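Handout for the seminar on molecular recognition.
Each group receives one record of this type.
Step one: identify the two inputs.
Step two: read the structure output and locate the region that could contact 6-O-phosphono-beta-D-glucopyranose.
Step three: write two sentences on what you found, then compare them with the reference statements printed after the record.
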Amino acid sequence: MRAPGRAPSGVSAIVIFGATGDLARRKLLPALYHLHLEGLLPGGVAVVGSSRGELGDDAFRELARQAVARFGRHPPEGASWEGFARRLRYAGASFTEPEGLAAVAERLREVGPGAPLFYAAVPPGAFADVVRAIGRAGLAWGSRIVLEKPFGHDLASARALNAVVHEVFDESQVFRIDHYMGKETVQNILALRFSNGLFEPIWNRRYLDHVQITVAEEIGIEGRGDFYEQTGCLRDMVQTHLLQVLTFVAMEPPLSFDPDRLRDEKVRVLRATRVCDPSRAVFGQYEGYREEPGVAPGSRVETFVALELEIENWRWAGVPFFLRTGKRLARRASEVTLVFREVPYNVFREVGVEVLGRNHLTIRIQPDEGVTLAINAKRPGPDFSLGRATMDFDYERAFPTELLDAYELLLLEAMQGDHTLFLREDAVERAWEILEPLLGSPPPVRPYPAGSWGPPEADELIAPHRWHLHGAGRAASGSGRPVQPRAADAPGRPLGTASGTG
Ligand code: BG6
């Protein structure tokens, strides 16, 4: 992770393979432009776009300008854009022909000495070809490579891909990216846990009842039918983003922020996570998915997953982790909620005061970034009654500065050669291993209406608890089907009347 004032990167060029594709246009080119604007992209670093077509520098610059105009945070204008455009070059490539990277090599020679940073923004099936092509072209020495997710499509293919990668690159040159690791709010989980004396003592089975991780998206597959049909939600989101967030929530404190010390702890917690049980998973598909371009009419690909995981160690034994994610859900919200145990003996119940729910600590990854602790408090007035209140940390209010985009941050990290936030091969392989039973015997795919909270079976999975979402009552965060309340969850009051912070 970046410590203030670190040494320059020594990177001469960033070579984006797949430079005309979706990821490059939506994320990488806008991120690089923003880094340039902020003065964070070192002066001499060129950006070489590469793909199968023959574009030419000017056409690539225009493609980049349009991408930044559409997806960037700052308009591509004036001297800043001119300066950035001067960094951009194009080189056609073929990953299968013997001389397929000749044009890339030529561009790198023009750029001058220094190490290239390759970025494989290509479909996952092409990673191995990209790696071999770099090896064949003799460009691997001294370089670094960023590989996108999903890394493989199961354990065996991830192992095979790791073997190919290691034929060409040393592990120290490899940066397997998961952009959730670059989100400020995900990194803040480490700050919250390991720099506050308040939280660490209660971050365990003695005080926590269960943990929820939700990554809800309002968007659908956004024209990526081909990709999604091959990938599905489990591989696209759970094997990657949700399990990575889980590692930050559940890991032991690292001995230092040395990249491998932190990554050791992440792997350790994945190893303690029991391989999942398909009977504790729900798959869903939003209605209308099969009509999306590139999707098979009878597709059984899941666009929603909810599942329960158990972590078998002293900190977490008996504390279920409920994960859910899906597309075309009611709204965009990524959150981690830690639900605390009930007080051991509730004196208020004895005297007839209506008892409210348990405490939750909610970490809002996006949007509305922040952390909220939901507590019970005395309602003002002559009678003693309880009301739900919150203690809030809001990123925007606390730190009125623009948050760096996850890709911006991770590109900087990769340029600096810092592996802390990138995935090591053992972590990727273990994440596949955890999900392997679901890949082999997936549960039935249940339909759900677009704009809902997924199939009702997801509510049954978590019952007698209920899914929480900040700022939402039961009607807004569950699928809408009633679930039997559990006395300890919200004693004495119907779940449908959840107030305040859900
Ligand atoms: C990507 C997935 O990795 O993450 C997409 O491939 C998903 O399907 C996206 O939409 C979500 O990222 P974010 O940052 O918008 O939450």
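Reference statements: The chain is about 35% helix and 20% strand. The pocket of 6-O-phosphono-beta-D-glucopyranose is lined by residues 217, 236, 334 (CB under 6 Å).
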